[in-house]
């Protein structure tokens, strides 16, 4: 696996590509306490500045954790495509109507009573650092490459890994 650390525009592009293609992430909050509090979240949007947006309930444990400590970690994983992304950053909560309308979709009705639900909030995740692993192939192709490498002793490009500085 080759290492490719990315910066600025290229890092932002890679972050957006992986976060949107994987979609679901584990949002970890209350990082200073063990065990950390982690909950699955669906990525609603990655904006042009690299901020990652989610919808959440005002009364949720993770919103309460964010109020105490704005540091958080995201863990994205798509094993079928051998894509992984870990992002550390800070989070804030907003009830800005324009943002909620931009992020809210019909599928969110499963969690909220529509766009006017008083419990509806948006979480803005601002990345500080990230680490990614991307095989550029699906799991089957990656396994074949690993098998080939183990039999022949030849190095095979299994993809790339690196840090993202946005």
UniProtKB/TrEMBL annotation:
It comes from the Bacteria. This is General stress protein 26. Residues 10-157 form the General stress protein FMN-binding split barrel domain. InterPro entries: Split_barrel_FMN-bd, Stress-Dev_Protein, YdaG_split_barrel_FMN-bd. SUPFAM superfamilies: FMN-binding split barrel.
